[in-house]
Amino acid sequence: MEDSTLKRFGISMEGHLLRKFDDLVQLRGYENRSEAVRDLVREALIQHSWEKDDQIVAGSILLFYNHHQRNLLEELTQIQHSMHDNILATTHFHLNHASCLELIIVKGKAREIQQLSNKLTSIKGVDYGKFTLAPVEKI
Ligand code: NI
Q1: Are 64 and 103 within one domain?
Q2: Helix (H/G/I), strand (E/B), else coil: 104
Q3: How far apart are the C-alpha atoms of 113 and 90, rounded to whole Å?
Q4: Strands (DSSP E) found in the chain
Q5: Strand, coil or helix: what is 11?
Q6: What tens digit of pLDDT does each residue of 23-78 get?
Q7: Does residue 21 fall inside a structural domain?
Q8: Where does the Transcription factor NikR nickel binding C-terminal domain lie (predicted)?
Q9: How far apart are alpha carbons 56 and 27 in whole angstroms?
Q10: Is 94 annotated as ligand-binding?
């Protein structure tokens, strides 16, 4: 049976991160930190639930990175070539002297697309990665 009683646990984080989190809590109109954390956890679990799925999905992987980072471009290219069947398009924007934004449009089995996203966003030098996806056909 589903346990819906509220449990308490402690969270430690750096002061600067907590200040930014509090800003977010206020900006999004949450009652308190707990409510915001619950929402973030739910969001993460929804993404996570795709990881074993054979459902065909399409989506985008957004990456911000510094192209001066050693081996980053080689690794990025190698991973994308290894899963070329799942990549519909890639667009690269040079934001300034060092920073790049890359948008990768993907389609395939949810499990594989999730793995691709995990590989790309965990490359050393990727400062920020955002993965969004939706089923191609209604579930
Ligand atoms: Ni660039």
Answers
A1: yes
A2: strand
A3: 15
A4: 56-66, 87-94, 99-109, 126-135
A5: coil
A6: 999 999 999 999 999 999 888 777 777 766 888 999 999 999 999 999 999 999 99
A7: yes
A8: 58-133
A9: 35
A10: yes
- Quote the ligand 1 centre to 47 CA distance (angstroms): 28
Q: How far is CA 69 from CA 87, 98, 109, 128, in A?
A: 24, 9, 31, 14
Residue 127's φ and ψ, nearest 5 degrees, are: -80, -35
Are the C-beta atoms of residues 115 and 47 closer than 8 Å to each other? no
| Domains of the chain: total | 2
For 8, the 3-state DSSP assignment is coil
Please write down the long-range contacts of 86-90, taking CB distance under 8 Å and 24 or more positions apart. 86/112, 86/113, 86/116, 88/58
Share of the chain above pLDDT 90, in %: 76
Q: What CA–CA distance (Å, rounded) separates 130 from 44?
A: 12
Residue 63 counted as domain residue? yes
Whole-number Å distance, alpha carbon 90 to ligand 1 midpoint, is 12
Give kind and range of the element (H or E) at residue 79: helix 72-82
100 is in an annotated binding site: yes
